[in-house]
Amino acid sequence: MVRRVELFRCLQGLLSVYKPSGQETAQFRTRLAKKVANEFNKLPWEPVRIRTAILAKNDDKLPTITTEADFVDNPLVIGRRFLHTDVVLNFIDPLPDYASGVQLIGIGEVGAYAYSDAIHKNVYPKSYHLTGMFGHASSNGLSTGSTIYRSPWRHITRPKIDRIIASIQFKARSASLLQAGLIPNSQKAFEALSNPDRLTKPLKPMLEPLESLPPDHVTAYWDRRPEPTQPHSLRARPDLSSVRQLPPALLCIRCIKFEPPFFILEIQVAHETSEFLTDLVVNIGGALKSSAVLCQARRIRHGPFGVENSLLLKQCSVSQSLYDRLNQLKSEPPPERDFESDDEYREFLLSQLVENADGQMDLFGNLVKCTLDKRIKELVKAPREEEHRK
């Protein structure tokens, strides 16, 4: 009978969890870690191990060999086997406190570093549903903030809000070209926008310095500062204040529902911030000679994963059948194929664990669906191949 730790070590990869609104990221991380630890604590306890001891007696010349139960794994001695601090979680592009929706999480050391870094480097666009309300203005742009003033909104019609949204879409496309160093209505801009990768990845902001001017007059202040020192540990992250933040890129925006004073926007963005989401709704209200606040923000898609692929907190469970399936796999003879690395063997083991799950929504089922996705595997495999070449 295998130990529960072996099943816990298989929990390496990528998860898609639905985050509720009105909850801080740190609080949601603690709740999720406690949920995972409690699920593993519910599994059957490990069998008692027998400890062999050699005792020497004064009257006899030969020592005696005795066997007794080892109390190291006794629940009365160690208490709970798994704690929430044992679960390694890394939130990828965490949602603001007021927002809800799809939240990608790297779990385990492999997921927290390899998968998270791969998704950060290859930016995936994210889709949001923003619910706004005309006629109010608050201190922080949210409906929960203190109201500053009220304004009329009955003059706003659907054609007017569509006209404002179309102008925002045009300005966002022009700004993305200028930030990428492209001139609108040029051949390079046409080739960049006609690239099929444009549908899945935004244009990368990259301003080339002019040769006629010294670089100090062209680059920004944060680029003229000396580079931050590299951390001693390879896994230590640099200070976020020393990392240049890319500007938000608005790829698409449209109004999907208009019931004044409420309206719902569907946007597709990258490098977004919480201030960008609130300012977008507030500026639309100002452009329509009124005011608006953000009532609700819901992320419906992050790259290839949507709401239908996300788990609720109550669905993050580990069933007894998975533990029995792992015992069965360990009792069978090892597979004949050779694995190049431990990661490849772990992926093979995960696929075998949920082979007969019949689409059950649980922790390991979602882990396999997100981790073994073809697009995600290609992103993670590319840096590893470069390291092997070096």
Automatic annotation (TrEMBL):
Transmembrane segments: none annotated. It comes from the Eukaryota. One of its GO terms (biological process) is pseudouridine synthesis. Signal peptide: none annotated. GO terms for molecular function: pseudouridine synthase activity; RNA binding. InterPro entries: PsdUridine_synth_cat_dom_sf, Trub2. PANTHER family: PSEUDOURIDINE SYNTHASE-RELATED, PSEUDOURIDYLATE SYNTHASE TRUB2, MITOCHONDRIAL. This is TruB_N domain-containing protein. It comes from Rodentolepis nana (Dwarf tapeworm).
